Amino acid sequence: MNETRRDRDAEGRARNARPRDGLGRPLPYGAPGVERQPEGVVRTPAETLAEAQRLLDAGMPFHAHEVFEDAWKSGPEDERELWRGLAQLAVGLTHSARGNTAGGARLLRRGAGALAPFAGSGPYGIEVAGLSDWARELAARVESGPTVDAMAEAPRLRG
User: Fold this and answer.
1) Residues 6+ apart with CB under 8 A from 60
2) Is the pLDDT assigned to residue 11 strictly greater than 80?
3) For 68-81, what is each residue's pLDDT tens digit?
4) What would the 3-class secondary structure string for the chain be?
5) Residue 120: what pLDDT?
6) In this predicted structure, what is the pLDDT of residue 5?
7) Phi-psi region of 72 (alpha: psi -120 to 50; beta: other; left: phi over 0)
8) For residues 124 and 49, is the Cβ–Cβ distance under 8 A?
9) Dihedral sign, Cα of residue 14, residue 18, residue 24, residue 27
10) Rounded distance, CA 19 to CA 29, Å?
11) Residues with Cβ < 8 Å from 98, sequence gap 6 or more?
12) What is the pTM for the complete model shown?
């Protein structure tokens, strides 16, 4: 019998231990990669936005997506769509930078749609209308053009 050994985390859950590049793509074991974002971190909204912006500015939208995902899973119910929408924008940028134009455009538009109910309130200083415009414009561009540079396309989360 050919048993395949799976990587496991400290709790015994299956978790790929291969290093990853800045866009979250797995690299060969032993290759230098970028440090992963820890999972399940509970941050304040201000901390979430600051960390996600840092990662976006560094050209690491996949990692910013993980920060937003933590906020989505740990935040108040009435804010889940806000954080989920931001996570979708970050992963849409990730896919666009990886060359998956159809998936990137779809996620950028989905994220813009999820943010729509928050456009009037701009919670935590988030530029919801500007982000939605950015996402729709980038979605149209990636569908008809070359792969984008994640760092060059990083959005500003707050005004």
Assistant:
1) 22, 23, 34, 150
2) no
3) 999 999 999 999 99
4) CCCCCCCECCCCCECCCCCECCCCCECCCCCCCECCCCCCCCCCHHHHHHHHHHHHHCCCHHHHHHHHHHHHHHCCHHHHHHHHHHHHHHHHHHHHHHCCHHHHHHHHHHHHHHHHHHCCCCHHHECHHHHHHHHHHHHHHHHHCCCCCCCCCCCCCEC
5) 85
6) 67
7) alpha
8) yes
9) negative
10) 6
11) 23, 25, 104, 147
12) 0.87
Q: Is the pLDDT of residue 137 over 50?
A: yes
Which two three-digit tokens encode residue 129? 């209308």
Q: Which residue has the higher pLDDT, 2 or 103?
A: 103
Confidence at residue 15, expressed as pLDDT on a 0 to 100 scale: 63
Query: Among residues 94, 124, 132, 89, which one has the least CA distance to residue 108?
Result: 89
- Phi and psi of 126, rounded to 5°? -70, 130
Q: Are 98 and 121 in contact (CB under 8 A)?
A: no
Q: What are the tens digits of pLDDT across the range 51-67?
A: 999 999 999 999 999 99
Amino acid at 108: L
| 14, amino acid identity | A
